[in-house]
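Review box. Two proteins, two foldings.
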Amino acid sequence: MTLLASSIAQLDPGARWSVRGCELFFASLAVGGAQRAEGVADELLASVERGAGALGVGKVGISWPRDDETLADWYQRRGYYPFEGRGELPPVLVKDLSAARDMDVFFGGWVPELTGTLLFVIDGPRVLLIDKKTGHGAGKINAPGGKLEPGESPRACAVREVREEVGITAKDPRLHAELAFADLRGSQWFGYVFVARAYDGEPVETAEARPGWHALDAIPYGRMWDDDRVWLPRVLAGEQVRGRFLFRAGRLLAHALETLYEADDRQAAGRGGWHAE
């Protein structure tokens, strides 16, 4: 406990925290911008997690820093994800330490069973989403998308799926994310996420999907996949990202998210990666 307390004090001397059974919970944990910029905070946070793990702590929870969205973003890039949130700002960011370790091992030899696409059509301040009526993810809100057909490119698949599901033709879609979805009790997916800012036609309901426009600042994350809270805000803001997500029966356990150039640097240095063929 002394080692853990020392690590926490170095990260944030004013932190308010407690150990509740197998969980370490921070009522507040403010990591300074200078520490983040210099990379010092990464090692200090890792030291806190190691100290927690040595005490048998399985999860670390941090109250959402409502007055500092850049800090919330920093936590999410280090494997913390919104947990059971309601509305725009979930109350807690959580990292499952054992699941994070499992994820690194699991993705070591991971190969997807299925490859698919999503395409978000943005029109000014709004984005087109669908109520999925059939297939994988039925009952959830998502973007139009589906599986690649033999010999089909990801971009061609994305355009075709949008046309089939909502009746419009997306123009000049740009790749914004490459995402690996591993499920310990389900299918293994690799997904390409595109964004288009122009289209022809008008969205119509089909047997597969019910389309609807949503304000970019009011995305209905409560009806979407758990991982969407982690990567979708960045994609809608114009970022390009790569991510790995570990699930158990559809429940998010752990994730890792990087910008595309960070991921390319990691692979070039031989420090990991995943199958993206």
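Next protein.
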Amino acid sequence: MFSYSCDFVELSDIFGQTIDRLSGSRSGFTITVRGDRTTSLRIRFTTDFSVTRQGFKAQYSIAFCE
């Protein structure tokens, strides 16, 4: 089980399996989720309201491969 304080973003697949959990000051990275692993991506933001600073920024793209 993960243990995070403050805020975090969790990515999970259609089966509820966690792909990644992000917290802290990580930036400038890419997470790739392949369509053969899941047809749906769940993004959940969780906060404990204890810290008020700038939040998360996310960008996504969908690529169709043949």
